[in-house]
Amino acid sequence: MAYRVGVDVGGSFTDFAVLDDATGEISTLKVFSRPDAPGAKS
Q1: SS in 3 state form for 1-42?
Q2: Which of 5, 11, 14, 16 would staple 33 via disulfide (CB 3.0–4.6 Å)?
Q3: How far apart are CA 11 and CA 30, in angstroms?
Q4: Which pTM was predicted?
């Protein structure tokens, strides 16, 4: 079982992508973030 993970930390959002190498399935998540408080709830 192998996964590839990508993260893009940008201005207002942090994006996550996960690829399951076995099935080719891609999962994504977009989270609101701020440079002074990444992951803080709005």
Answers
A1: CCEEEEEEECCCEEEEEEEECCCCCEEEEEEECCCCCCCCCC
A2: 14
A3: 12
A4: 0.71
Q: Is residue 27 part of a domain?
A: yes
Q: Is residue 18 part of a domain?
A: yes
In this structure, the number of other CB atoms found within 10 A of the CB of residue 2 comes to: 7
Q: Which amino acid would we find at residue 11?
A: G
Pairing of strands 3-9, 26-32: unpaired
3 half-sphere exposure, CB direction, 13 A CA radius: 9
User: Residues 3-17: what's their mean pLDDT?
Assistant: 91
C-beta neighbour count of 1 within 10 angstroms: 6
Residue-range definition of the domain harbouring residue 19? 3-32
